[in-house]
Amino acid sequence: MALVEFADFSFKYLGADSLALRKVSASINEGEYVVITGPSGCGKTTLCRAINGLVPHFHRGYIAGNVYVDGQNTRDATVALLASSVGLVFQNPANQLVTLNVEKELAFGPENLGVEPQEIRKRVEEIIDLLNLEHLREKHPHEMSGGEQQRLAMAATLALKPKVLVADEPTSNLDPKSAELILDIISELNKRNGMTVILVEHRLDLVAKDASRIILLDKGQIVADGAPRDILPQDISMEIGVGIPKATQVYKRLQTKGIELSRVPLTGEELAMLVGEVTSS
Amino acid sequence: MILVEDIHFSYDGIYTALQGVSLQIEKGERVAIMGTNGAGKTTLIKHMNGLLRPQHGRVIVDGTDAKSLSIAELSRTVGLVWQNPDHQLFLDSVRKEIEFGLKNLGFSPEEANEQCTQTLKNLGLEGLAERSPFALSGGERKRVALATVLATEPRVLALDEPTIGQDAHQKERLASMLLDLNERERTVIVVTHDVEFVIENFPRTIAMADGRIVADGSTSSVLSNEDVLERCSLTPPQLTVAARALHKVFPQVPERLALLSELENAVSEILGVVP
Asked: Which residues contact residue A169 at a Cβ distance below 8 angstroms, ignoring those fewer than 6 apart?
């Protein structure tokens, strides 16, 4: 079975007029890097909440269909139980940090899940190493920069050894260099460690190159689902207001003038390379 | 006109958030302030409407030292839209929220009602008037916070990270609204990390790092300066990266290209297609 499985899942928040998610079906397998995108209010955040069980256990409402995470139906599993499978990272890291230093922050989650002290010590060191946090060890989280805080929040999430990392716009408060660093770490975790990643992001120019798959949501429904190079040039992406990478937009404009590049570029370097290819052939 | 002269500010007396910032912004300008997290960008704009007062140096708004003006007086000239709308919104309907500020400025209930209706219409928020701000999506709350400030028609509008959480269409709408206000002689100042938004809409950029101004000039010159980008933790946008890479092989492509149509035309020329 898929790691995360949406089976005809619909959800309406208590008191809301319309469905936040409408008959969503999608299977996400281990090792995938899925970017969820779409206009504001399209249901991206609700989708994340449905994976970690906040929908329907904390946010109540009308529910139809099912979500399975690591084989468990989220209707039956508690949020605490799901927390050991699903690691969540939010937009604002400061809301997620609870302790006074890096080691305590990393130990906090596993302690709450009853992990043995020896195992916790081992994990803390592994993660400090993995995310390059050594130089921050003695620093108070509230003295850290936004980028450092987000790195720590992500590390604390990974200390729970989740099977899937769900990140809801994790870089939107960060300066571009810090954002790039966080996204590079996420991409590395996916490529090198096989971590399954589900990332909500508007700015596809930053993430399309790393993603294996993009799911496009509009008004609570999946309107496109596939590889970035297949999804982004489609008219629907432009119509619903997705931030299509500029390189991909140039590709589309060239196409209308009869110039065909050999593939759809997702980055500036790639665009330049593909143009060079046309001139040399 | 806003004149900032050598201002220093520290929140706790130890760490200095601003260490000698000077700048001048003329009426009708569109200026972006960019830089690292913690560079002092938000601290700087809070000095423009008196939310913070300089511990050294001075701020002059329209020829008057801000020192002699109250926050209420300054807010009439400089409207500040905060990064987090939840710090700005506190009433139980969007309409009440907007009318609150207007009544504080001396609008009669009827005038406030009319101004509120007009502002909501301009922002395409008519349908939300009676809703509670807290039941809205993050992007919608951000637009409501903007509406509360816009309704008071300040001559200078300063926005802190207005594009966060906004999709492509909303960003376009925000940009066209800001350009429209600017055409009606409003000065627009924006603090943002969004390089593309700045390149497309703001002719002047001030880049900051460590409480100081690192560069202040035309957006194209500031954002194509490698040293500035490095010091301010900025990354060049895709189109600039593409233009630079093309320039190495095709010297006729200027390295500074920034807009989509410019790159499209340059590539068309290289490939011998009529633009």
From this structure: A91, A200, A201, A202, B165
